[in-house]
Structures are given as structure tokens and as C-alpha cells.
Amino acid sequence: MPFLDDMKVGLRRELGTFTFTAENIKTFAREFDPQPFHLDEEAGRNSIFGGLAASGWHVASVCMKLIVAEGVRARQAAEARGEEFGTGGPSPGFRDLRWLKPVLAGDTLTYSSEVVSSRATASRPGWGIVESKNVAVNQRGEEVYSFLGIVFLPQRSGGN
After folding, report:
1. What's the domain range around 81?
2. Which CATH number characterizes residue 48's domain?
3. Overall pTM surpassing 0.85 (yes/no)
4. Residue 160 belongs to a domain
């Protein structure tokens, strides 16, 4: 992760895309969310979703994978330029998780993240808290998923 100083309100990062196939929906569901509408096309068609639906936790897990991959790319690019790159701290959690529309087999989601707040914290000198709205839109441009992520980041100056 970059330093707190780099995370200005409005900064938007494109995280990547992912296509949900029947195979990867079922694989995830068998392991982590074995509900019929995630495991069987017919059950999905007969459900409120109208088709084989990805677990919301699958949609969220892909988001996390893309957030981490984007951080790795950013770190590698900074190091290639000879720049220092902050090592992020833990996340104290998230808020406002929303699964807004079903994600069906064949849907491709595009994920992005936008900084909505960034501030130093008095309780942890040299650190700050960044809140980002993370969203996924499907191939029709419909927002299908969102949450407000929160993470601790170091200040470049060490808070001095």
C-alpha cells in the first residue's frame, strides 16, 4: 500500500475484471456457500435470481484478490522507479456491504476503489486511516456490489 500522504480523497484505482463462469461459481459454492442456487443451474433458474448465481462472498473474495494484486503491481512499479512504498497495516473492518444485483454465470464484473476519506490518527502516531468505496459493475454498467473498506496506512513523514 502507498503512504497515507498519497491517498487523497477522490483518488480512484481500477482494480481489474473477473468473469464468473458456471464452473467457478460452483467450485466456490461447494467449498464455502453450498446453497442450491449457487450449485445447480435449474435451482438457480427457479430461484429469485433467475439463473445460477454467484455467492456474494465469492464476489467479495474476487474483490479482495484484485485489491491485493493492484497493491503488488503498485509496489513493484514504485520499487522499479526507486521510490519508497509504504507497508499498510491491518484493516479495522468495513461498513455498508451491499450486494445490489445478482451476479449470474457469464457476468463479467469490473472492480474499482475510490478514496472517500483520509486522515491521521491520534491514537497511532505515524499512522492514518483511509476509507475507500469499493464497487463492482457488471458488463451492462450496473453496480452489483459495494462496500466501504477501512485500512491503516503509515504516514511518509512518520507523523512528524
Report:
1. 4-154
2. 3.10.129.10
3. yes
4. no
